[in-house]
Each structure stands twice: as C-alpha cells, then as structure tokens.
Amino acid sequence: MLPDGVTVRMGPGCPVCVTNMPEVDEAVALAEDGAIVATYGDMYRVPGTNRSLADASAAGADVEIVYSASEVVDLADATPDREVVFFATGFETTAAPTAAILVGDPPENLSVLSAHKYVPPAMAVVAELPDTDIDGFLAAGHAATITGYGLFETFVEEYEVPVVVGGFEPLDVLLGVERLLEYVRDDTAGLENAYPRCVSREGNTAALETMWEVFETTAGEWRGITEIPDANLVLHEAYAEYDARDRFDIEPATGNADPLTEQCLCGDIMAGTADPDECALFGEECTPSNPVGACMVSSEGTCKIWLEYGGRPDL
Question: Lower CB density within 10 Å: C or N end of the chain?
Fold first, then answer.
C-alpha cells in the first residue's frame, strides 16, 4: 500500500537477532554443564559460535522453552535440586518482567543470564552510520509502553529527524508511516505518539522503577552491528547473587565457527543499510531450516520475513 519511493526498513528491533554469539555460547555452556536453561522459544535455534541451544538439547542438555519470566520461577520451584538459569533476552518490554521476578524473592536455585538490550543507544548508532539514509524513525510501541515516548525527545533534538511511536495493528503501522511522511514532507524533526491507547509520555513508571532497581546499562556488542555504549542491561551488584555470570564459572566453547558467518550481512540489514536479497547467502546457504544468521531464525527476523513473503512483492 506504500507509494513508490517510500521504503520501510527494519532496524535492530528483533531482540533475537541482536543477541551476540558469545551470549548464546554462554547459555549453551551452562546447559551442557548440567543446568536447566530456560529461554523464550525464538532463542532456541539461534546459532552461537558453533552450537545453538537446540543443538545442546539434541545432545542431551536440559533446555526449556518458556513464555513468561514467571514460568521460570515455577520451573525453579518444581526442581529445587537443580540449578535453573533464565537466559533472558529482549528489550525493555521483557527486561521489566525479568526484574520483577528478581525483586519478588525468587528461589535460591534460580539465576539470570542477561542478554537484555536497551533500545535508545542503538537508535543513535543507526542515526550516526555514514551510509544511513533514514529520514524518520518509527519507534516500537511495545518498548515505549514501558519507557514512555518522552524518552525520544533528546534523540529528535540531537539528530534532527522525526520519530513517531507506532503500534502493531495494520492501521497502526500505516498511521505511523503516514505521520512520518508528513514530517519528512515538511522538513520537520518532530516527535509524536501515534499509539496513545498504550503509550504515555512517562511510560509505565512502576515497571521502570523495578527495571532500573535491578538493571544497569553497560557497553555491549549487538550481533553483527558494533559495540554500543550503554545498550546492554546487566544486573546491579545488589542482585549479583542471581547473576549466572557470577554464580558459575562459564567456559563457553568458541572454536570451529561456521565460515559462512563471515559472509552474513545480518548486521548491515539490521542497521538499515542493506536488504536481505543483497546477501549472497540469502535463500541459498541460509534458510529458516538451516540459518546462518540470526535474522533468518526468528519470526521477527528480516531475512525470514523476506523469504516467507517475497521481499517487496510488486502488488
């Protein structure tokens, strides 16, 4: 439905896609060492340096798929003689529930391997890329439900590009794009909340308070993109007893990486500087059944979406 000349590019908004290989390697190592590793389903098949959690499970490791952070608490309660590690991924939307279970007196056998990410610093990196041609940002409504849309005010001022917070129903997406096009047409750098039924300026203040009680930001590598300052969420020292990296001596295996990963363009695709069909592996060596990059694994991954729906079909 978009007119010619208007392109929507997916940025680094898929948490599975930006989870770095060494983080997956840590989760695999913990599972292979005998811990029960619980994680969200879309992380199950994401390749690490040489193995995924699915590979570890096939070899006998105990990997459990959960649909909420609270399920991990139930799992730990049900297996008091086992160490349960929550490989916690996602942005602010899932970081807040992870924080909630840790302030709620969790079982002693539960720990968290945090791969949570914080969105605003990544937006700044995309805006600063020399090859970027982004005229406006459609900010994700689910993350803004937690953080509030006021978070983007300094971004708009600094980079002089419009930001519209949008929802996920088809009409929400079209409204967000339409509003962005008006800002671009008028050469105006504005901020607008086009998802008011869920997003406020202040966000979910109770969830934010809990999240920042448990987590702090640190620099971290976003898969295929770069190291981004203040973009990873790690546990505060006050919650170190629940930090899997402190509790266990994690020694991930990092050898024998798939040489095809060097050719993968996932980082460029997530940064908005390349399309999936510009990658030589797309649809050939890299498919959903045999993914080379994380963008082909997740249902939110750009490459999987393009392969399933035909890229930009001429309708």
Answer: C
